DNA sequence: ATTGCTTTTTGCCATTTGGCAAATGGTTTT
DNA sequence: AAAACCATTTGCCAAATGGCAAAAAGCAAT
């Protein structure tokens, strides 16, 4: 829980009372490796904040292949589709890569916090904005790089993920087969 | 000029007086094919709205290759880097693919409009937000598609550009060589 | 240590794409 | 019409990646 408070306070100040109120509304959930946090098509009931573990976000393309969009690791807020415009689509699946621990708020409670805690909406707004600008990927850089370059970028950008995420998921994230990634990896050493 | 007013009014209402004020501040510029609208490293002096023509946005990667980030066509606002966070980077070049006509405002005038015309900032804010969400590219879709799929997407998404943009630029935008695109094109027919 | 299960690596070959240069086709200028 | 200048297509071969299956390595449970 401290992780969450600490995270939030980076984006604005809150007094003890406010923090207490938020903490009272929060619950802690754990789920195990390979459990879904949510599945495509289902209604999302929670706002979550991941405190431990790694989650994979993926979808199925028109050939039925599972494509990994990205990974979520510790200290990231997971807002549902209709709260942060279209970032998390209802067509996506979120599944735990490792055992996870998460703080969640029901949508009802979340709304109450928004109504009672002055400054909360501006904090969330800031988090969302930062999230947005992180997600505005530099399309052309990606597309004009070959597999090796994309992998090098990946390990540089997400050094903590490399050893916790199975190679097949990284390969899918990087848009190549796992054999190719295995070979690329070999050539880099 | 009408095009600009029409565009802006989609995002909010303005009265005659306000429109007049804006029109008085605006100037029309034309530039020819292959002229630069701006070059990397230079200070951008204007806010522009493209009424006719197509502009190409590109940069040089670390191998010195010219990479096309995207195209701007009619009815698009071009805000400079420090006004719309980092969308237009000072490391980018904007060059006309066809003869262009553009409405421009000096930064000074633009500020004055922001200060005097009530509702102007909210209109601009909406435009920027829309721009943002258009630019949040679906990274994984792109990267997991092969050349043919990317080209088919392109002609579907920008049907008006296909015949006005040289093949080499489209190829660069799609992250492939122009020979490859030429072959892909041939196979599609 | 052995077994069973999962992940990663490797081999083999097909397909795609890149790199480069020449040929072709189109457009503009004179 | 001819010449000059581009843009596009094509040919040739090399490099990168995909597809598939088997082998190897890693890990967990007994």
Automatic annotation (TrEMBL), chains A, B:
Domain of life: Bacteria
Listed name of the protein: Crp/Fnr family transcriptional regulator
Organism: Polluticaenibacter yanchengensis
């Amino acid at each position: 829980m401290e992780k969450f408070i600490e995270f939030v306070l980076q984006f604005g100040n809150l007094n003890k009372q406010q923090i207490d109120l938020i903490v009272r509304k929060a619950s802690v959930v754990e789920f195990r490796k390979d459990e879904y946090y949510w599945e495509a098509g289902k209604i999302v009931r929670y706002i979550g904040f991941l405190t431990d573990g790694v989650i994979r976000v993926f979808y199925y393309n028109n050939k039925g292949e599972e494509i990994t969009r990205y990974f979520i690791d510790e200290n990231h807020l997971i807002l549902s589709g209709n709260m942060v415009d279209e970032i998390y689509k209802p067509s996506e699946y979120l599944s735990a890569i490792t055992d996870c621990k998460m703080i969640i708020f029901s949508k009802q409670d979340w709304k109450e916090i928004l109504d009672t805690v002055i400054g909360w909406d501006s904090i969330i707004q800031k988090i969302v904005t930062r999230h947005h600008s992180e997600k505005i990927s530099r399309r052309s850089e990606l597309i004009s790089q070959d597999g090796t370059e994309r992998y090098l970028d990946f390990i540089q950008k997400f050094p903590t993920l490399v050893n916790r995420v199975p190679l097949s998921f990284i390969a899918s994230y990087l848009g190549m087969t796992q054999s190719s990634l295995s070979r690329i990896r070999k050539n880099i050493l």
